[in-house]
Amino acid sequence: MATEAPLTDAHTKPNPAGPAIVAVAAWIVPGLGHLLLRRWGRALGFFLATAGLALGGYGLRGEVFSPRSSDPFGALGFIADVGSGVFYFLSHLFETAGPELSRASGDYGTRLLAASGIVNLLGVIDAFGIARGRRG
Amino acid sequence: MHVHLSHFATMAIFALLVSVAFACVGRHTLATRIKYALLSFLLFLAIGIGVAWLMYPLSR
What DSSP line would sit under B32-56, residue for residue? Predict the structure, then answer.
């Protein structure tokens, strides 16, 4: 069983931003919430994971769900997609050719985009917990 | 932007990136994060390939 590292300076300094600001920052820009909390490793990890999954999804021409979807799965897809923050808001820059759902790769792309949002939401919850002092 | 990836490469990229995120949440030191991410990545691949083989008879 590995031992936990001793608390460093970054862990003991008071949090300059409130938990709500940290959570919103973590959602808008993946990793920014942890950056505000001086958790450099987690910030980099969440940014790389979210960005990699989102860019992979756009590269595979996955479907980006809009907030005006009429079917329940579309609504769930939108919630998952919008979780990736800036990568969702700038989707028109990344996916200029539109989705390609007639091929398996387009379907995989849709899953990668959803995973990107879910991973970032995990980061938001983690950053919020740290900001509230409930996580190490 | 358009990339061409095989099914396996897509699964491996997904597994790697999700494993990194899990390691960031689940572990606190760099060494334990790397170990956790590697183990998670290998398990993703092993289970993915295992499930693919189990489903193989259904595709014929």
Answer: HHHHHHHHHHHHHHHHHHHHHHHHG
| ipTM of the complex, rounded to two decimals | 0.87
- Residues of chain B found within 8 Å of residue A96, distances taken between Cβ atoms: 1
Closest residue by Cα to residue A42 from A69, A11, A70:
A11
Whole-prediction pTM: 0.85
Chain A interface, Cβ < 8 Å to B: 2, 4-5, 41-42, 45-46, 48-50, 52-53, 55-56, 58-61, 94-97, 104-105, 108, 111-112, 115, 119, 122-123, 126, 136
Contact A116, A87 (CB under 8 A): yes
- The contacts of residue A15 (CB under 8 Å, 6+ apart) are A22, A36, A37, A131
pLDDT digits (tens, 9 = 90+) for A54-75: 999 999 999 899 888 888 888 9
* Residue range B9-56, pLDDT digits in tens: 999 999 999 999 999 998 889 999 999 999 999 999 999 999 999 998
